[in-house]
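Exercise 7 asks you to align residues with tokens for two separate proteins.
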Amino acid sequence: MPANRRWSYAALALAALVLFSPSLLASTHSQDVLIPVQGLLAGADGVAVEGPVAMHFSLFDADDATESVWSESQQVVVEAGLFTLHLGALEPLAAALFHHNGQLYLELRVGEDDAMERWPLGVTPFAAHAHFAGNAARLEGRSSAELRADATAYDNSGSGLTATTLPSALDEILARLAALEQQSAQALASVESRIEALESENAALVGQLEALELALATSMEATQEMIDAQAASIGALEELTAPMTRETIDEQDSIAFTNVNVHVRSGSATTHGTINGRGNLIVGYNALRPESDIIEEPANIRTGSHNLIVGDHHNYASYGGFVTGSENAIMAAFSSVNGGHRNTASGPFSSVSGGATNTAAASYSSVSGGSANTASGNYSSISGGSGNTASGSAAAVAGGQGGLATGNSSAVSGGYQNRATGAASAVSGGSTRTASGAFSWSGGEYTSAM
């Protein structure tokens, strides 16, 4: 027979129990019979089949016969590989069929597979032939008592039947079924073990998924809270920056502040609070001074607060000041340098308006311009010139070169190297004149007023 099958049949038990009574056989030749069939169906891989399967049964009068004497198709439900059915349930199986045929062979075909090897029918189905036998009561002279119900063999040549008794055949079938049942139990135990492992793995995965879902929900909640907080912050920022607009002014990108004041604070709570180098408004980069250009130490001092810084290379050491130009310094409270180069306002409320290397070193002192001038007395001033000094309180040098006003309230109006050293003394001009007495005055050349 062909071997290309999807199924293998570990056992096919033909219990062959004829489901009718002897009295019915005796009354009619047309009595139909049922033959119970039980078997175990497994796939080609040895795994027991489960579910409905189409089966086609045929009876032949010879092992090699091509025409069947009876056939029937049934849809059989297979459970764990085991199936049970009755031949003749759909197509009538006449008892006379067993009378007219000495030996019948059963053939099974499952689905579209090739037919399996034919099985010769056992003894019991031929019980349907008993009422046709010439000596049914004696069986070739034997009494029914001589036919024991155990595993004794017998020969009934008259009926053409030679076989062992049914108990022996059933014992073999039951043994095979028991072995198959054990195999099925082992396979089932293996499957159940795998199912338990998969269920355990699935439970772990479900736990992980639930943990991930919880973490995701928590994360989403936190994210939403952050989004809400950021939205509120953005709303507040938009409200705060409403007076500020980005515009194009004089063909340049610009930020405009409308209807507001701009405050720059150090965080010290007051303008004259502790300085910390913050709270300054710096216009430009205010680069550090090159070390090679610095005479005084330290080179760069930028510890002040609340100052307006415009230009480059400036120092600022206090608060409330203003400096512009280049390399200028404001070193005391509320001092200012309005321009020039390397000028210093180091007295409180002092100022240098311009020029170069000028110094206003005392309180309320000022230098308006010129070069190398020093106003070192309180309230002193130098209007211009070069190399002039006003060291007396409220002393003044209006101009000239090398002028010196050391007396309180003294004045040098101009000239060259003139000196007013007495209190309230004055030199109007000339060269190398000196007014050393209180309230003295001098002018001209090489003249002294004592």
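Second protein for Exercise 7:
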Amino acid sequence: MSMFANLVNNAQLHEFNIELEKRDACYFPGSNVSGRLVLRAKVPLEVEKVKVMINGIARLKIKSKLTKSGIECVNTNTDLINSVETVAPEKAEQLPDDIVTSVEAKSISALYTVRAEITFRTEENETKKFCAVKGFTVVEPFDLNGLPVCYFEPAVHVLSKKFGLFSCTGGQIKLNFTISRTAFVCGENISIEGKIENKTDRRIDKVVAILQQVFIVSGQNDESNSTTPETSVLDVSDIHEDNLALFVDEGQAIRIERNFAIPAMPPRHHYVDNSSKQRTRGTPQFVVACK
């Protein structure tokens, strides 16, 4: 079980933990978030109430006309104990089928937590309350077998930079590289193979490939007679950078072979404002840029 330990500095309560059934704390939309609470007390407790809350919110971080406040993706409250018991039973809550996946970008975030609160009385008849928080991730199942064949064909890219008025005078730098396919699942590596040719009279210090996450947040008015144009925000974040070649001398050509790891965040459309007049949608994708 995945566990979050909350050590409590209290004379009665020693530890208040949240344990999730799944070790990686990753869940699909529509699945059950199940687990239990563990209470470790130094003395017998008079527990009045233990409450568990599952919260999730999607929010734009930038100032935009699209939306100014986040919306709740999920919000549930469950009273596990309302007596003098000190052992919390196992509990499961089902996530909505249309819940957005977890995302953390410059312009938008969608975060989920499990929060537990315990209320008890001390020997001095004082009421005490303590909290424990556990974050979890919502991911969307993705199957490469359902994609068209075109996503598994090699993608060839050619980049060139000329120096001088003509390539015959100043020369040019030419970069050819191939990506074996354009569809991947989280945790896979993007394999890049190619060649850099320096047909100039100067040395190339380095050639860099950058794995970028491109997030497009777009909003539009749902009213049919509205003349308000669609507004969009482009969010580009560098995920990983690696050198493809270093110090390529004039007239030299170097073969390139590199792998880039994809982070665990699958692409999906996120509707972060479900009001009747305006909708906001975010589309994340990953690209490889070379320079």
